[in-house]
Amino acid sequence: MTKQLIDTFGRIHDNLRVSVTDRCNIRCFYCMPETDVKFQPREQLLTFEEIERFVSIAARLGVRKVRVTGGEPLLRKNLSTLIRKLAAIEGIEDLALTTNGVLLAQQAAELYDAGLRRINVHLDTLDRERFRQITRRDDFDRVMEGIETCRRLGYGPIKINVVAVKNLIEPDIVPLARFGRERDIEIRYIEFMPLDAQGLWERGRVLLADDMIAMLEREIGALEEIPDRDPRAPASEYRFVDGIGRVGFIASVSRPFCLNCNRLRITADGQLRYCLFAVEETDIRALIRRQASDEEIAEAVAGSVRAKWLGHEINTARFVAPPRPMYSIGG
Fold it and tell me: pTM value?
C-alpha cells in the first residue's frame, strides 16, 4: 500500500474523522430539528471491529490523526472500548474526541484510561438560558461538570468549540475567551456553516472571524497569530499578547482553507467523504461487509482522495449544500 494519500492538487491527507453515531442528546437549532429526527438504523452503523479495521488500513495509507465524532459520540455504548482499539493502532499519533459534554463527567475517567487525552467540548454560551435556547435542553450544569472533570483528570489540550451565529452569540464571545484564559482552555469560534437540517443558514447569519477578533481585542487585549502553526490545520490560531490564553477561528465562510485541507471523514454508517460539504460518498461499509480485501478498501480510499474537488465554493453561486446535515456527516 502507498504511504501517502495525495489528491490531484497535491494535498496530503493524514487526518481522519470517524463518526460513531448520528444520534444526539441535545437539539441545537442550527444542527437538528427539535422533533421527528430520522436516524440511521443501528444495524447500518459500523461496528467497533469494522471501524478498527478501516482505521488500521487508513493508518497504513499515511493517516496519523484520528478524531472520534458524532452526533454525540458518548451515546455510543462502551465507547472506551473503541478508544482503546484506536489508540493501539500502529501509526496513529494523535487521537481526539469531540463531544457536547453532557455525558462527559460520567465517562471521562474511563476514556482517559483507554488512552484519550485530547478533547473538544461544544459549548456556545456560559449563559444558562441562552444554552437552553440554543440546545433546547437544560444540560448546562452537566456540560460544565464534564469540562471540570477533564481538567481534574489531566486532559490536554482541552478546547471549546463555539458556533458563531450572528445576532445571537455576540454576548458570549468575550466571556468565553475570559473563561478560557482563566482555565488554560483554547476557545475555537466556528463560523456558522450551511449544514443545518432545516435550511436556516444564510450568509447574513454568519458572525465573521474578523468581527470576533475585533471584539476580543477591544474588550480583552491585542491578539497575535501564533507562529509556526500547522498550515493545514483548519483553525487560524491566535494568542493574547499579554501571554494569557489562546483562541482559534474556523472561518470556513470568510477564510476558506480548502487549499490546505488534509481531512477525510467516515460517517457512522460507513460512507467515506473527502469533504465536509461533499455531495458524493464512497461506500466503505459495503466493501467491509462483503469481505473485500484490505487492498480493495485501500484503493477505494485512494480513489476518493483522487476525486476530491478543489473546494466547497460556499461563496459562489455554484455552491450546493450536501444532502446530509452535520449530525449525520459527523462533526
Answer: 0.93
As for how many domains the chain has, the answer is 1
Distance of CA 268 to the CA centre of its chain: 14
Three-class SS state of 249: strand
As given in the structure block, the three cell numbers for residue 36 are: 421527528
In a domain, 3, yes or no: no
229-247 burial string, b = 16+ CB within 10 Å, else e? eeebebbbbbbbeeeebbb
Reference 164, options 146, 181, 176, 149; nearest CA is 176
Report CA 5 to chain centroid distance, whole Å: 21
127/135 Cα distance (integer angstroms): 12
The whole-angstrom separation of Cα 87 and Cα 144 is 26
- Per-residue pLDDT for 86 more than 70? yes
Residue 6 in any domain: the answer is no
Asked whether residue 10 is domain-assigned, the answer is no
pLDDT value at residue 38: 85
Residue 72 lies in a domain: yes
Bridge partner list, 240: 223
Q: CATH code at 151?
A: 3.20.20.70
Q: Which domain holds residue 188?
A: 15-329
Weakest mean pLDDT among 218-227, 249-258, 288-297? 249-258
Q: For residues 220 and 216, give the distance between their C-alpha atoms in angstroms, rounded to a whole number.
A: 6
In this prediction, residue 193 has a pLDDT band, given cuts at 50, 70 and 90, of confident
C-alpha cell at 96: 481526539
The single-letter DSSP state of residue 205 is G
